[in-house]
């Protein structure tokens, strides 16, 4: 038996099929992955993501340290509650993990992946020399992601009951990548689905009652299976699949998360990235793939790419699925930058696929052309 | 709970077989198998006229989660294929024992039927 979140009994109550996920007993699906997926695209769904690791960073050097530790620049977080997505890189520029960092009233809050928790903490501890910072894990907090077109309205009513009408107005008025602290709750307009929604960090002791209120308001419980199809439709990376320590953010569609300016900010991995940037056109790229023929794209499948000079070179699918919204195969794949045409090797048959910008569905609608 | 109709025979690899009056057999995947797979979104159908040997891969069923081979439970020629599954693969989830049938085979060695499992034995395996 693995670790259980504060909502484990609620998952069983909702009929979840439980699997081991990074040492945690988590719901992979309740009834039907496709129904759960569609609920988030069309209505609202709630994900228990309490297995993810929350680390609060405090101390006089918190900001300066994160500016060194992370490829994106926390100085860009102007106001309390603001969030940004970033890679945490090693000296070679490889991605140790991807994470969200929030500016809190005091210090910062990081949310890192569950499967990478131990190595992340060990890495952070090893990089503290010369900085006065404290790291505090927050296992007493649960995380609920409430996502979908109805999500914010429903959360607003729950916040009004639990806190006050002005607080609920604050929550419904939150801009994307902004959050607000209410007592020991933190509610932010972030998510992993491509829909509007919030992520709520709240005490474990309150989580089951809030879960019940959400379900009573018509929010559907969503398992990790649909979490994966939703994030892939949104074109969002999954650590350990689309990138890892051997992959540069420049080859993982994470170039936009590297804050090159100010040039004097010497963050971990910067030198390696600058060297890579000199010959960027030779680096492989993470692209989206669309297969309109029948079938499903899967992680690990070979992508045969025809280059500009007519030669061929292989790429690989890093995440693939059947898109429940679009009803065809979609994938993220690492391919040569100058690939002109691509075909995926499915059981020995080369099936043509179309490279597109990563990102397939936003707000319930197809986004690529 | 999964259903295991008594009038069918089963392979350990989760296919079911129904012997028809004309001596041909209809084949599909069990209720238990479709539950394990979850939402089925694509089926690589066998080809009519294909000759298959028992235990050979004859088709692939893909759900959102996984791709899974279907093995021929019996040797013979494929004489009919459920083409409706091409447009509605989810029928295999909703109706595994009737509308979700996969194909019909004319057995070349009907004695192979005796090697298949009865409903109780197969159900016991799936527990």
Topology:
The complex is a heterodimer of chains A (369) and B (127).
Chain A: H1 8-13, E1 17-21, E2 24-29, H2 33-42, E3 45-48, E4 53-58, H3 62-69, E5 83-89, E6 95-103, E7 108-112, H4 117-126, E8 134-137, E9 141-147, H5 151-162, H6 165-172, E10 179-182, E11 185-188, E12 197-203, H7 207-216, E13 220-221, H8 224-233, H9 270-278, E14 285-291, E15 302-307, E16 312-323, E17 328-335, E18 339-346, E19 349-356, E20 361-362, E21 365-366
Parallel strand pairs in A: 3-13
Antiparallel strand pairs in A: 1-2, 3-9, 4-7, 4-8, 5-6, 6-7, 9-12, 10-11, 11-12, 14-17, 14-19, 15-16, 15-18, 16-17, 18-19, 20-21
Chain B: E1 9-10, E2 15-19, E3 25-29, H1 31-37, E4 40-44, E5 51-52, E6 57-63, E7 67-71, E8 76-81, H2 84-87, H3 91-94, E9 103-107, H4 119-125
Antiparallel strand pairs in B: 1-2, 2-3, 3-9, 4-6, 5-8, 6-7, 8-9
Q: What's the quick description here?
A:
The complex is a heterodimer of chains A (369) and B (127). Chain A is α+β, with helices and mostly antiparallel strands and 369 residues long. Chain A has helices spanning 8-13, 33-42, 62-69, 117-126, 151-162, 165-172, 207-216, 224-233, 270-278; strands spanning 17-21, 24-29, 45-48, 53-58, 83-89, 95-103, 108-112, 134-137, 141-147, 179-182, 185-188, 197-203, 220-221, 285-291, 302-307, 312-323, 328-335, 339-346, 349-356, 361-362, 365-366.
Polypeptide structure, described:
- Chain A: This is aminomethyltransferase.
- Chain A: Belongs to the GcvT family.
- Chain A: One of its GO terms (biological process) is glycine catabolic process.
- Chain A: Residues 7-261 form the GCVT N-terminal domain.
- The complex is a heterodimer of chains A (369) and B (127).
- Chain A has 369 residues and is α+β, with helices and mostly antiparallel strands.
- Chain A has two domains: 1-282, Probable tRNA modification gtpase trme, domain 1 (Gyrase A, domain 2, 2-Layer Sandwich); 284-369, Aminomethyltransferase beta-barrel domains (Elongation Factor Tu (Ef-tu), domain 3, Beta Barrel), CATH 2.40.30.110.
- Chain A has helices spanning 8-13, 33-42, 62-69, 117-126, 151-162, 165-172, 207-216, 224-233, 270-278, and strands at residues 17-21, 24-29, 45-48, 53-58, 83-89, 95-103, 108-112, 134-137, 141-147, 179-182, 185-188, 197-203, 220-221, 285-291, 302-307, 312-323, 328-335, 339-346, 349-356, 361-362, 365-366.
- The mean pLDDT of chain A is 97.
- By secondary structure, chain B is of the alpha+beta class.
- Chain B has one domain: OB fold (Dihydrolipoamide Acetyltransferase, E2P) (Beta Barrel).
- Chain B is built from four helices and nine strands; from the N terminus they run βββαβββββααβα.
- Chain B has a six-stranded antiparallel beta sheet. Chain B has a three-stranded antiparallel beta sheet with strand order 4-6-7.
- Chain B is globular, with a radius of gyration of 13 Å.
- The N and C termini of chain B lie close together (10 Å).
- Chain A binds chain B through residues 29, 32-34, 225, 229, 294-296, 298, 321-322, 324, 327, 347, and chain B through 38-39, 41-42, 44, 60, 62, 64-65, 67, 86.
């Amino acid at each position: 038996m693995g670790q259980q979140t504060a909502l484990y009994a609620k998952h069983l109550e909702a009929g979840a099929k439980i699997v081991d996920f990074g040492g945690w007993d988590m719901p992979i699906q309740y009834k039907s992955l496709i129904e759960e997926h569609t609920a988030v695209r069309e209505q609202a769904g709630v994900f228990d993501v309490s297995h993810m690791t929350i680390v609060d960073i405090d101390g006089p050097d918190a900001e300066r340290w994160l500016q060194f530790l992370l490829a994106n620049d926390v100085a860009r977080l102007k106001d309390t509650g603001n969030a940004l997505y970033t890679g945490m890189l090693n000296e070679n520029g490889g991605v140790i993990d991807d994470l969200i960092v929030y500016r809190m009233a005091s210090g910062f809050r990081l949310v890192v992946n569950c499967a990478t928790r131990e190595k992340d903490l060990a890495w952070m501890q090893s990089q503290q020399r010369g900085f006065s910072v404290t790291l505090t894990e927050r296992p007493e907090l649960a995380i609920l992601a409430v996502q979908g077109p109805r999500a914010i309205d429903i959360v607003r009513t729950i916040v009004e009951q639990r806190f006050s009408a002005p607080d609920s107005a604050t929550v419904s008025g939150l801009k994307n990548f902004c959050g607000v602290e209410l007592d020991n709750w933190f509610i932010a307009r972030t998510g992993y689905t491509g829909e509007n929604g919030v992520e709520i960090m709240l005490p474990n002791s309150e989580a089951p009652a809030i879960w019940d209120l959400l379900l009573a308001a018509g929010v559907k419980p969503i398992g990790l299976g649909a979490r994966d199809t939703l994030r892939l439709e949104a074109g969002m990376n999954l650590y350990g699949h689309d990138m890892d320590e051997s992959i540069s953010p420049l080859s993982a569609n994470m170039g936009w998360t590297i804050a090159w300016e100010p040039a004097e900010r010497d963050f971990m991995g910067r030198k390696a990235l600058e060297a890579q940037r000199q010959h960027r056109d030779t680096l492989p790229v993470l692209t989206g793939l669309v297969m309109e023929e029948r079938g499903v794209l899967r992680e690990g499948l070979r992508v045969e790419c025809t280059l500009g000079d007519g030669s061929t070179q292989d790429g690989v699918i890093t995440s693939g699925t059947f898109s429940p919204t679009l009803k065809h195969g979609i994938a993220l794949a690492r391919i040569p930058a100058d690939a002109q045409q691509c075909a995926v090797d499915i059981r020995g048959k080369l099936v043509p696929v179309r490279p597109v910008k990563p990102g397939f569905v936003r707000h319930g609608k197809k986004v690529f052309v | 709970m999964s259903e295991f109709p008594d009038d069918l025979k089963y392979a350990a690899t989760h296919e079911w077989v129904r012997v028809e009056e004309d001596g041909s057999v209809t084949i599909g995947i069990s209720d238990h198998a479709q539950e394990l797979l979850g939402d089925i979104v694509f089926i690589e159908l066998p080809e009519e006229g294909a000759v298959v040997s028992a235990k050979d891969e004859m088709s692939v069923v893909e759900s959102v989660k996984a791709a899974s081979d279907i093995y021929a439970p019996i040797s013979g020629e494929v004489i009919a294929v459920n083409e409706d599954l091409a447009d509605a693969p989810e029928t295999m989830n909703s109706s595994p024992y009737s509308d979700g049938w996969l194909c019909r085979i004319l057995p070349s060695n009907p004695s192979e039927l005796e090697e298949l499992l009865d409903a109780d034995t197969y159900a016991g395996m799936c527990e």
